[in-house]
Batch of 2 targets.
Target 1
Amino acid sequence: MNYKHFIFLFSILILNSCKKQDVYLNKIEGQQINISDSLEIDQSIEDFIKPYREHVNSNLDSVLAYAVETYSKSDGDYNTAIGNMMADAVYEESNPVFNSRTGEDIDFVLLNHGGIRSIISKGDVTTRTAYEVMPFDNSIVVVKLKGAQVRELLDYLSKAKRAHPISKKLNIVLDVDGNFKSATLNSKPLDFSKTYNVATNDYLYNGGDRMDFFKTNDSLYVLDYKVRNVLIDYFTKIDTLNPVIDNRFIQLKK
Amino acid sequence: MQRRQFLQQTAAASALVGLSGLGLTSFTTASTKKITILHTNDVHSHIDAFGPDDGRNPNQGGVARRASLVEAIRKENPNTLLLDAGDIFQGTPYFNYYGGELEFKLMSMLKYDVATIGNHDFDNSIEGLYAQLPHAKFDFVSANYDFSNTIMDTHVKPYRIIVKDDIKIGIFGLGIELDGLVEKRMYKETVYLDPTEMAQEMSRVLKEDEKCDLIICLSHLGYNYSNRPEKISDLKLASITKDIDLIIGGHTHTFLKKPTVVKNSEGKNMLVNQVGCYGINLGKIDFYFDADKNKAANGTSIIV
């Protein structure tokens, strides 16, 4: 037995014991730990977050406008002050963008009542207000609708009996029994042989609130403009927020 | 592969020749090894704890508190991994202001090891996600998003292997179908591959080729869809695959009282877990290994 043989044998010997020992999974323990206020705060993490938090908060709390009253989506039957403000803001802020890109104008705006997520309180209106009213990242789209689909839209609004926000140039009247009576745009009756540019949010365009009439359309224009940013831009532009309930969507009284 | 292993072992053995019997004894001691897996999901930019007036989760969550908890657990067991199952982004103004920078920086400070990608992580488009990658000192895994024709190409691996205390841990990722959930213009040319097929492929690679001792799936598929049984979910995936020890889930914001024990396709018990959302909870799963084959043959005991 020479030197090489010796190494070989010795290697075999050690290999058997030194080879990565086989391990077997024998037990698993699982639990969930609540992150509650009984846990200590890691100060280095807290200190790291602080400047970010302060910047966000000072920005969110910067005053953009002043609200004369408190506005809630539950104040009003077929139109509300806050909803009217939102639909008109979408028209005012989106139409210049849409027009500059397409050369056309938005005819009217339709949003959803449920999309107003918070009241606007009397007093300072801040960026935070915009986040509260619109916490979601939905964006404005302009949908080209044929007369038939505009008819469906009016039918939907007549039956929904909710104050889904519409912009001010559209006027919808229901009769005393709550059936559709008439609709005008810029004081002229809607022409159902025409197509209309309807601005809405991408949630409704994608079938949200069962507004299925948006599905059948001639074209879709994505504005890449978030509803929240519309509100921030609108609040920045105005000094005083003073929207009112008007006659844009009403039911005739007996 | 086997040849290389043999060569490495021979080299190690040769180096020990001079050490006489000393090396022998130190290798033969059998001991229990413990691997701790910590996990979060759907934190959605919730960096600060909920305030005392919050209607649902007052005084809960917060990264600074999670950090101290993770640190304490690491002190107790250095063989600890920290994982996240996606939807790191979107949910507080921090995301709107900083695009995910703060989320990634804080996860890096907490020493997260691996995360997978949720649908909301595309909310600033795939470019927005890519732009924040320099802030993430942890890895992203996804086996069923093919990023080849996107800016994310090479930045996301199907799986990652981490060795702790000689225990080889394989972690692979799975993402939910993006079509219908995320706009195409946001995820661009990301291709969604079948998660079941990829899970089967990954568990084979990790078990047979990589010889992992522990296989973990980081999933953003969702816990369970009782109204849509045909839709792939963590519970369904668990029951039709094998060799996966733990599925850490997300997407459905499911709060479980305790991890769910599921029988896999071979009838072996494994775990599916998810810890709700917004950083309100931390999941903690301890895996104990030892040299006793007989105990393992009788089935792993699971205590939840």
Target 2
Amino acid sequence: MSEPLLSVRDLKTQFFTEDGTVRAVDGISFDVNEGEIVGLVGESGAGKSVATSSILRLVDSPGEIVGGEIEFKGETIFGLEADDDGELRPRDEMLTEEEMRKQIRGREIAIIFQDPMESLNPVFTVGGQLREFIEINRGLDPDEAKAEAIDMLREVGIPAPESRYDEYPHQFSGGMRQRVLIAMALACQPDLIIADEPTTALDVTVEGEILEMVTDLQEKYGTSFIWVTHDMSVVAEICDRVNVMYLGEIIEQAEVDDLFYDTKHPYTSALLDSMPRPDRTVDELRPIEGVMPEAIDPPSGCRFHSRCPEAREVCREVHPEPRDLSEEGEALHTAACVKHDAFDVGYDESPPIDTQATGGFSAGFTETGGEAE
Amino acid sequence: MSEVGPPESDPEALLQVRNLQKHFDNESGLLAGVELDDEFPYVSRSSSDVRAVDGVSFDIKEGETLGLVGESGCGKSTLARTVLRLLEPTDGSVYFQGEDLASLSGEPLRRMRKDMQMIFQDPQSSLDPRMKVGPIVEEPMKAHDMLDEEGREARAKELLEKVGLDPQHYNRYPHAFSGGQRQRVNLARALSVNPDFIVCDEPVSALDVSIQAQVLNTMEELQEEFDLTYLFIAHDLSVIRHISDRVAVMYLGEIVELADKEELFENPKHPYTKALLDAIPVPDPRSGGRKALLSGDVPSPIDPPSGCRFRTRCPKVIQPEAYDMTDEAWRNVVEFQRAVERRAFEETDPEALRDRYFDEATPSGDAETLLDEALGHIERDEFEDAERLLTERFADESVCATANPAYELGSELGDDRHYAACHLRRDEAVASAVDERSLDGAARPGRSEADD
């Protein structure tokens, strides 16, 4: 395999608050290859958005990237090294803030946010904002940029783009606004687009249109995507490879088909089981019990053990690092669960523990840890 | 809808909604409805109603869950509020346990409210942040003079436990709870006055998937235990499929299809329902993707299309009788007409447009003459003339535009009736309520005599 477009190694982002350190992203590693749509899935609070803003170095105080390496097309977006005193400091080849702004953001890596209203300025016309963006980032003169902007609007399916060019964001529907943002993201033909829950706020019909459009545009331009979502259906539809996140860690990583049909981590299977299906009637949903713990004080050992139906004593003690569990010749499939033989920490001999998920019916009925009965 | 009959005739139905309408006008306010013109008299006043709910009829039987699904802006929430008479209906009636809510007011209505409760979408903003959850749950009981203070507290604790919370959290504030738990507090509050009927307006759409499943399960358990009847509103078809017994699909203020859950999902009869079902992504990478997609935006409810309101986006608009085109040619005409309307192309050369839109099938006869005329307009850059010609002579001539569809069909799965508002079903219909004479959208499915 050729060099990945983006490679993230052991990325750690922490927020230093009065109550303590929140380890929002705690050592995740993944690659994005050229022309690939990579999914980043998880519940709210899993650290998905912090991970993507870290890639663009957009994490603000009190948050800070404290470790790891991010490489993009051979350039170092983030990297640390120890200096003579053993203090960590940014490596020399790490891009400066100005280089990030001028070369990377928007031009090489674009981002689409969930709420299109907040990403567009309400006091400027849609066309004007798009034109300005193209003008600055591609060095075109205003007329060329305007022509290009109208072309992009047509490309993403805005009806009558010439007349809508002069309208304001509030005159566009939610789906239309999201299309404008996609047009903006594509305008500089970046190599990577990070889409942070771009269809979550939209209706199913509009979501469908946008997904279809993204697939088409992706084929046409060969752009890579990191698609952040909590919706497994969207993952199934557009992603090539998927990373499942839980409480700041990637707990499973696989090709999309393997993830759904050869699920290795109990959290992933629980997530899949808890969803009602549109294509068949499910008699009983099997929810994941409990709520995600706070990242400020994650459970010991495997972070999912407090909600895991298969948890055993050893899960509380051993913290599993993701390991490759694929058979020879198969695509990479990693999971961080000690129930697999590859970990060899004595899971089979370890006694099962009482968790919210294994504590019988009463626990299944309450979110407060089985105190109901 | 052909379930219409004398309201007293169906003793089983807990709630009967008949031809319910809710229009919002824009006449409140000093300058409301005032428009500026270029010509004399420069200023004009117009009143235009937003027809949010426009002639909706359905029954809800005791103990069942009726799912109501539709895109945002189709009038689901307005319908729910009008049914509970939180909004004054413009027309129509709502019979709850045989009494017409639309004619009640004052104290009798207030007492009636005890039996009907509502759960809102946002669990955060529907709880008073300055009240503890115990008093929140007790408040409806207080309003309806239920029990004494001690009894209320005991009941509140019992209900908290029933909805899966710790009764010891009685003294906590809403902010101390997660989204899913807050929605449970809402459930407990709704249950406190022992209602028969609960309207749930998107109760789980703000929650994470795993939490969503927990809350849905709790709602089902409670329904069984307290014999509740739900009107369950959601835009998520998977949730609707899971929780509903029967499902109504709404589009632009009207119900376009209503049938048993299985029947509706497995055997949808309305093109809009089909389009909705096709649009949902399936959590299965081997499902093979979607087939067709809707194009265009939902039209404005101020001036909805005549006849079938879905016709401006429908992939299966029926060919006007005046023409004799092949199906392919008609599809191409429709597609071309919509493309002109959306100004989806810049091309003005007739030949190039023909190649693009009428490659495999060209209309013949009258239709071809009209098409040539339209292409001529486009060549001279008269897009508006072309649009008007195509719309008047093709789109507006279709039966879909001239008559309001309302058909009752036999049901293939399940034994209940299947209502579909689509003219494609006219041949299989066992009863219909189409009023051919009314072209201005005055006829409503609800105004039928089909069952008589």
